Amino acid sequence: MRLPALLIAAALAACARTPPPPQPEARYTVGKPYAMGGVWSYPREDFALSETGIASVLPDARPGRRTANGEIHDPALPSGAHRTLQLPVILTVRNLENGREIRLRVNDRGPARPGRILGLSRRAAELLGVPAGGAAQVRITVEEGPSRALARALPGTENAALPISTAPRGVVEAESLAPPPGARSAERVRQAMRAPVVQAEIPEHAPPPERLPETVAQHPVTPGHLLIEAGTFFRRDLAQRQAARLAAFGGRVEATGSDRQPQFRVKAGPFASLAAADQAVEGALAAGLPEVKLVVE
Asked: Which fold has domain 225-297?
């Protein structure tokens, strides 16, 4: 009888030593520049972002770890990772290859592989119809209202109000004078100006819940061509110099903007497959072009 009792006591002791699961400490953050996958990223606030590119399924399906903004990663929730957006942020994500569209909460940094614009949790990938370990052409759009509501609701250094010192006010003496004869209309105007002004309340977006509804909308299938963008310049000669470094992948210069302020965008492609586009991204990085990104047009 002593052996079972010892085993039970050892099991209870092991359970007592098991650390409790981490508690979420969600906060609003933008963050400092960082290196991931051999490429530097520079986070910035952008509530109007809309871009196309490649989304891939995050390889880390381990639940319980803390995300970049202090939330707890749960692969069973529709969430995502982005390299530069403020965290958290609410995105509309459309799979251009099958037309499926969902909303998800981005609360982490990634994906690690260059040439990807969005990392998908396991559940987000399932809702979008992306197989495990796969990738898809997507369009992502920041939902401005809900995202700003999150920024206001969560603690963080980026959204802290700046202290403003009130300027000293001197003593001002005033005397009300009776209106001159025949100025009754002016007195009525002054009385109307002294009447209290009722301010209309402007409704604000309430922050969305941490678990977004798993609603899938269906849109037309609109896949595009895969291209590389390697920067936009105000001088054609600088753009041509950049394009020459991508000559092996069909680098070229395309003029954009207005006649008064022309801009010159460096592109390469299109590429017949994602594997070929990934090879071109790796070649561009090897040529010293860290700012390249893979887009869908």
From this structure: Alpha-Beta Plaits (3.30.70)
